[in-house]
Amino acid sequence: MCWHVCKKKFIVKREFVTLPAHCVMQLFRVFCLLGELRENEKGCPEVIMVSEEVEEVTSTFVRALGKEWDAGDFHHFTSLMPTFHFQSFLAFLESRYTVGTEPCGLLEATSELYDMYVEDILRKGFLKKKMSSLGLWFEMYFVLRPHHLVYYNSKDRTRKSGEIRISPRTRSEPVADTATSRGHRFVVTTDDKVVELSASDYKSKLLWIAAIQLATQHSISNRTYQRHLASKRKSERLSAETHRKQREEERVQQLQLLEKEKAARRDAEENLREEHRRRQELEAAQQELENKLAEERQAKRDEEIVRTLQSRLLAEEWEKREQLEKEKEEQLRCLEEERQRREELERIRRQKDRELNSIARTLSCLKSEKIVLTSKLQDTEKMLTVAETASKTLERRLKSKKNAPVMKRAVSADLTNAHDFLNWEVDTQCELPEKES
Question: Quick one: pLDDT at residue 208?
Fold first, then answer.
């Protein structure tokens, strides 16, 4: 019914036409069998076929045409188109795999697909069947499905000759060759009979035995074998998709965890750099404090040294002051003694002057001696003047506190010489009156 509704759209509106309408109908049946019903973006239901099922059908179709299947080229194309509508599926087959193929080959390949997927035929071909009643072998065309093995008189399957029911208890076993009986024989044992068959070659015999065993295994199910395989492939795809999503989620989680670890690592590195920077700042501050402490200690040591030097200098200055005080007192005492001695000399001089005046009046006749005495008196006055000058110089030097001892000795020596001279003069003056008398 669906085909009658849609065939005009699929047959007439085609850009690349190589398949006849009957082949398109068979491919449509295969597509509907293996396709999935989904909703499009507008919310309308549509039948699509995933790329895995398209690969399954297309590879079978290409091998049925006798060509080599190129999986790489197909995967390269389906990487851009993961799902197919029937129009795109039909255009894909016609444009890439039917060019240069004869129509009869296309019909056979399409019929092969239809028999495999829609008719659920596991295997078909010519076999020889032994007639139990006559013991003769007749070649017939056998068609194997999951629940029965039907044989026909010809390949066109117009006249059914018989049927062998297949159940889970059905067995297919090879028959060993004997001296009188040769050929690639095997037997099919059912619940009610045993059928002996013969294949054309050894490989065909093994393929038929394996196919009958497969039908026996699937005979317990009510679904067709191809629907079972399609459901199995879908489950595998869903499982693979689930695993892929799980792996993707795990990968995303791992990436997130990795990002978190990277962020934590960056934070740790940033904290480490910050800690290293703070440590450097603390080390710099510690070094600065140590330098300041060393400077303080050095300043304290310098201050102690300066204080010690100042104490020493103060002590030395104090000692010098005490020494100067002592020297000053000594000089003052010496000056006092010199003053007293001078006063004594002045008194003596005045007394001598009086005596000289008296003597001068009495000795006026002695001019020559008077001249000598006068000359000596003048010399004595000069000496006194020198002594006075030396005394004044000594007083000035005492004020400057320099070379005091030397000046003191010089003045003392001058005064002593002057005193001796005066004593000599006085003695001389005393001796003159005695001589005159």
Answer: 93
Query: Could you read off the pLDDT of 386-426 as tens digits, one per residue?
Result: 888 988 888 888 887 655 454 444 444 444 454 554 454 44
Backbone angles phi, psi at 269, to 5 degrees: -65, -40
- DSSP reduced 3-state for 124: strand
Q: Which residues pair with 45 in a beta bridge?
A: 39
Q: What pLDDT is recorded for position 413? A: 45
The first and second tokens of residue 53, run together, are 């099922």
Cα-only R_g, the chain: 76
Query: How large is the average pLDDT for residues 187-208?
Result: 90
Distance CA 415, CA 197 (A): 178
Domain positions in the chain: 2-118, 123-223, 336-436
Residue 91 Cα to chain centre, angstroms: 54
**pLDDT value at position 414?**
46
* Cα–Cα distance measured from residue 300 to residue 296, given in angstroms and rounded to the nearest whole number: 6
Chain CA centroid to CA 34, Å: 53
Query: Cα-flanking dihedrals φ and ψ of residue 130, to 5°?
Result: -85, 125
Which CATH code of 3.40.1400.10, 3.30.70.270, 2.60.40.1120, 2.30.29.30 fits the domain covering 123-223?
A: 2.30.29.30
Mean of per-residue pLDDT scores for the chain = 82
Query: In a 3-state reduction of DSSP, which class is residue 83?
Result: strand
Nearest CA to 376 among 352, 401, 400, 340?
Answer: 352
More confident residue, 412 or 321: 321
| Nearest residue to 369 (alpha-carbon basis) of 379, 383, 359 | 359
Going through 137-270 in order, the beta strands assigned E by DSSP cover: 137-145, 148-152, 160-165, 171-174, 184-189, 194-199
Q: Which among 191, 159, 300 is positioned nearest to 150, based on CA atoms?
A: 159
Contact 139, 127 (CB under 8 A): yes
Q: Are 403 and 397 in contact (CB under 8 A)?
A: yes
> In this structure, are residues 196 and 129 in contact, taking their beta carbons and an 8 Å threshold?
yes
Q: Which of 386, 433, 393, 394 is nearest to 414 (CA)?
A: 386
Q: Is the pLDDT of residue 279 over 80?
A: yes
Confidence of residue 427 (pLDDT cuts 50, 70, 90): low
Question: Is the dihedral angle over the CA atoms 50, 53, 59, 61 positive or is it negative?
Answer: negative
